[in-house]
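#lab-general

N.A. 3:47 PM
ok so I finally got the sequence cleaned up, no stray characters, all 111 residues accounted for. can someone with queue access submit it? mine expired

B.Y. 3:52 PM
send it over

N.A. 3:53 PM
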Amino acid sequence: QVQLLESGGGLVQAGGSLRLSCAASGGIFSIYAMGWYRQTPGKQRELVARITSGGTTIYTDSMKGRVTISRDNAKNTVYLQMNSLKLGDTAVYYCSAVGCWGQGTQVTVSA
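B.Y. 4:20 PM
back already:
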């Protein structure tokens, strides 16, 4: 089973930036598609960005142009660079691969 550990969340002012990291262990990282999702209370978890093993990326429309997903196979880590953050980006951000999930990292955007 793959273990995923997110980090990099925190409190940031609107317009600011954060970079989230997700370190994977217990599997063959390089062959996995990796995804970042987010969830707010009372809402379903939604996809933010996804990157395939070959580096193809997709982004949710609400964050397109403001986020970049990348991966470092040598470090078994996937990143989510988030810029121009908005109040509505406040959520718990989760990393996912092969049906496994991390514990999430809280991102709070303040006015």
